[in-house]
Write a structure and sequence with these properties.
single chain, about 60 residues, Arc Repressor Mutant, subunit A, three-stranded antiparallel sheet, 2 helices
Protein backbone atom coordinates (compact mmCIF):
# COMPACT_ATOMS: atom_id res chain seq x y z
CA UNK A 1 0.00 0.00 0.00
CA UNK A 2 1.45 3.37 -1.04
CA UNK A 3 0.31 6.91 -0.30
CA UNK A 4 1.52 9.51 -2.78
CA UNK A 5 0.66 13.19 -3.02
CA UNK A 6 0.17 14.96 -6.33
CA UNK A 7 3.34 17.00 -5.84
CA UNK A 8 5.38 13.85 -5.17
CA UNK A 9 4.02 12.13 -8.29
CA UNK A 10 4.55 15.19 -10.48
CA UNK A 11 8.13 15.74 -9.34
CA UNK A 12 9.04 12.05 -9.72
CA UNK A 13 7.49 11.63 -13.18
CA UNK A 14 8.30 14.97 -14.82
CA UNK A 15 11.30 15.90 -12.63
CA UNK A 16 10.08 19.48 -12.38
CA UNK A 17 8.86 21.62 -9.52
CA UNK A 18 5.17 21.09 -8.75
CA UNK A 19 2.76 24.03 -8.80
CA UNK A 20 -0.88 23.94 -7.73
CA UNK A 21 -2.00 24.48 -11.36
CA UNK A 22 -0.30 21.19 -12.29
CA UNK A 23 -2.81 19.18 -10.23
CA UNK A 24 -5.05 18.73 -13.29
CA UNK A 25 -2.19 16.96 -15.08
CA UNK A 26 -1.99 14.33 -12.34
CA UNK A 27 -5.79 13.90 -12.23
CA UNK A 28 -5.96 13.31 -16.00
CA UNK A 29 -3.21 10.69 -15.89
CA UNK A 30 -4.83 8.94 -12.91
CA UNK A 31 -8.13 8.90 -14.84
CA UNK A 32 -6.41 7.32 -17.86
CA UNK A 33 -4.75 4.69 -15.67
CA UNK A 34 -8.11 3.86 -14.10
CA UNK A 35 -9.68 3.50 -17.55
CA UNK A 36 -6.94 1.13 -18.73
CA UNK A 37 -7.22 -0.91 -15.53
CA UNK A 38 -11.03 -0.92 -15.73
CA UNK A 39 -11.09 0.78 -12.34
CA UNK A 40 -13.67 3.38 -11.31
CA UNK A 41 -13.45 6.41 -9.06
CA UNK A 42 -16.68 5.49 -7.26
CA UNK A 43 -15.68 1.86 -6.66
CA UNK A 44 -11.89 1.68 -7.02
CA UNK A 45 -9.98 -1.59 -6.82
CA UNK A 46 -6.43 -0.32 -7.36
CA UNK A 47 -6.10 3.47 -7.21
CA UNK A 48 -7.97 5.22 -4.40
CA UNK A 49 -8.13 8.96 -3.87
CA UNK A 50 -7.42 9.97 -0.28
CA UNK A 51 -8.68 13.54 -0.06
CA UNK A 52 -6.16 15.95 1.41
CA UNK A 53 -3.38 13.35 1.15
CA UNK A 54 -3.05 12.01 -2.40
CA UNK A 55 -3.48 8.57 -3.89
CA UNK A 56 -3.39 5.12 -2.37
CA UNK A 57 -2.35 2.23 -4.59
CA UNK A 58 -3.41 -1.27 -3.65
CA UNK A 59 -2.84 -4.68 -5.22
Amino acid sequence: MLFRSSDYLFERVWQEKYYEKDNNTIMVHIRHLREKMKDTKKNPNYIKTIYGVGYKIEK
